[in-house]
Amino acid sequence: MRLIEIGIKQLNNRDMETNVLIAEFMGATIIGSGERKLIAFPDKRITDEDGNYMGMISNNRSVKDLHYDTDWNWLMEVVSLIKERQILGSQNLIDDIDNALTCDGQIGDVYSTVINFIVRFNGKIKEYDYKCTSNSIWSSFDFGTVLAVDLGEATKKAKDELRMNLEKCNDALKHCDITNGFSVTMDLDLIEVTRK
Fold this sequence. Notes:
The protein is an alpha+beta fold. The chain folds into two domains: about 5-125, no CATH class; about 125-195. The chain contains six helices and six strands; from the N terminus they run ααβββαααββαβ. Residues about 1-15 have low confidence and may be disordered.
């Protein structure tokens, strides 16, 4: 795939190549090259009103017949699939899509955030495990997994997640008569992050 070549530069240039990227994400097989590409989506099962099988229908298109950048119906199918495929660490990307939908509601903004998600989802995002070696008795939340492009981003996300979990723990301690006044701390610089 040409994910890196497409990159952020072309997010503003809605073109056939980015529509092909979305089609692949949606499960299409790309046959051929250039403008002669055939986009072969999985066959659809057709049923009547009662759910009885009536047959299969092929859904093959040319590159020019992809309308993710101009048709809300096409684009919202992608948004729905993205939310179904939500994986740990991708919430910020999904929030970006939701923000684009609610802010101006411009199809170009939503399209760009969808492309950004797919570019990151299709191989640039990697899974990283983390643990904090602070010898804390609170070992139920001092480890986890985040998704990130590189080790630096993974470390930042892991620290943010640990910080958030510490805040939740300390809030819970404050609301209990027996533990009021107690708090838990960790040295987040001791965090170890490794690629899965």
